[in-house]
Amino acid sequence: MIKFNQACKAYLSHTKALDNLTLHIKPGEFVSIVGQSGSGKTTMVKCLIGEERLDSGQILVGDWDITRLSSNEIPYLRRQIGVIFQDFKLLPKKTLAENVAFALQVCGKSNKKINAVVPQLMKIVGLSEQMDRYPHEVSGGEQQRTAIARALVYQPKILLADEPTGNLDSINAEEIIELLQKINKFGTTVILVTHNREIVNNLNRRVLTISDGKLVSDQAKGKYLI
Amino acid sequence: MFLSLARIIKFGFQDVWRNFWLSLATIMILILTLFSVNLLLSLKIIGQAAVDNLKNRVDISIYLRQGVSEDKIMSLKARLANLNNVQEVKYVSQAEALQSFQNRHQNNPEIMQALEQLDKNPLTSSLTVKPVNPDNYDQLIEDLNKIQDPVIDSRNFQDNKELLNKINSVTKKINDIALAISLIFLLIMLLVIFNSVKLAIYSHRQEIVIMKLVGASNFFIKAPFLFSSLIYTLAGVILTAVIFYPFLSLLQPYLDTFFFGYNIDLLTYFNKNWWQIMGLQTIGTGLVNLLASYIAVGKYSKI
């Protein structure tokens, strides 16, 4: 599904964010990527969604080489990979349903399709009753669920979760992880980038540990090692 | 396709509305720019009309001896008419000259009284020579000086050319200043639009981030900002027309009084050339605004 082949990326400070990183994530997997701050996790995420380019090496998503995408091709990549972040990235002046609908509107989907898809997604993430609320009126967990619903609007094969529980308490964090597992059961590959030892240990799924831009550990049913 | 276009238009209007004060300031600058351009155009038209009018009034008078037979006068008239650069030679008899003089000074009782005290008509008959091209005035005077005829009493080669040169010079200066002021306003307009779009992008940075995140095309992200610059253009052009026409209507009576007999009608000129003037201003302003927006969007939408 996703392949990093000898991926290298350095910033102007000559720090190697990715140093010959090679890994392979299979379709339908639930993979946790762990590592200390500055280990290269975020760079990996950025390269995967076309926000950064590799200096050398290759990234494949399915059969698609996304290493050197043009700026016009990046939107198509981002419709294939759903992404959620620690800060939710919701528009405060739109309701939860409007936030989800916005993702479809800006990509030219018809109102008919939007009206059909949005309630379904809100139901999947358990927010049918909160659709008309604004982000500041709901909990952090519910905001993250909305972000997940938005990430799923194009039925992506990959869901990339970059520190999704970073701003949540343990109960909400647990609920989000359960939701991600549910999505994974439907066949979506989930990549969870996290610092949360407890979550990683409880998941008991594949864990990739990154340090100084290199893959230092790959455990099929791993634990948080660092 | 049409749905995307409709949403781009909707988002464009939202940009303008949500940044109301910024949009208002931008449109005000556009109105100031276009108003000054139209004002300078009016000045150019007035200047040109005054120069043309003055050029038509440039003529040379040759005064004739009294008591000369009409045959000799007509013979001289024919000689003058044959000269190069002579458009028309008009014979003004003693009686006509007196009538014209009386008409000119009818409001001056002292002159009229002095005229009445004279027994006879003190004015002489004359031949008035009108040049084809007032710019060749010197050549015509040279040609006229070569003609020696006993019929001629005196020649009044009052140098209108100097006056013409002065007016031409003033008109040229007005045009140059107009061009410079227009260019300055154009530059201001460019910078203002650039900053407006920059601020609009800044206030929408969250939306832009999300649009990019969910895979909106670059065109869809940028187009609303380009469209809002077109809204500024149209609003600016329309509001300028709305303000400028009443201004012209108020100005016209003053122009009629000040330039009496010059036939300067700005309203008619603007009405006749309405589409040309407004069309060119819309296209020109639209292109400048699009350019400024395009640069701003390219530079600042990479969030």
Task: Chart the SSEs and their pairings.
The complex is a heterodimer of chains A (226) and B (303).
Chain A: E1 2-10, E2 16-25, E3 30-34, H1 41-48, E4 56-61, E5 64-65, H2 74-80, E6 81-85, H3 96-105, H4 111-124, H5 140-151, E7 158-162, H6 170-185, E8 189-193, H7 197-203, E9 206-211, E10 214-219
Parallel strand pairs in A: 3-8, 3-9, 6-7, 7-8
Antiparallel strand pairs in A: 1-2, 1-4, 4-5, 9-10
Helix pairs in contact in A: 3-4, 3-5, 4-5, 5-6
Chain B: H1 2-18, H2 20-57, E1 60-64, H3 70-81, E2 86-92, H4 94-104, H5 109-117, E3 126-131, H6 137-146, E4 152-156, H7 160-203, H8 205-213, H9 218-258, H10 266-272, H11 274-300
Antiparallel strand pairs in B: 1-3, 1-4, 2-3
Helix pairs in contact in B: 1-9, 2-7, 2-9, 7-9, 7-11, 9-11
TL;DR?
The complex is a heterodimer of chains A (226) and B (303). Chain A is α/β, with parallel strands linked by helices and 226 residues long. Helix content of chain A is 33%, strand content 26%.
Number of spatially distinct domains of chain A? 1
Number of H/I helices of chain A: 7
Measured distance between first and last alpha carbons of chain B: 25 Å
Looking at the structure, the CATH topology of chain A is: Rossmann fold
Shape of chain B: elongated
Described by strand count, sense and barrel closure, the largest sheet of chain A is:
6 strands, mixed
Please state the oligomeric state of the protein chains shown. heterodimer
Please give the largest β-sheet of chain B.
4 strands, antiparallel
Greatest chain-chain contact = A-B, 22 and 18 residues
- Residues in helices of chain A, as a percent range: 25-40%
- Please identify the structural class of chain A as seen in this structure: alpha/beta
Shape of chain A: globular
- The parts of chain B where pLDDT drops under 50 for at least 5 residues are none
pLDDT average of chain A, as an integer? Answer: 91
Number of domains of chain B: 2
Strand content of chain B is: 5-15%
Q: Termini separation of chain A (Å)?
A: 27 Å
- pLDDT < 50 stretches of chain A: none
Going across the major beta sheet of chain A, what is the strand order? 6-7-8-3-9-10
What is the top-level CATH class of chain A?
Alpha Beta
> Any idea what the CATH superfamily of chain A is called?
P-loop containing nucleotide triphosphate hydrolases
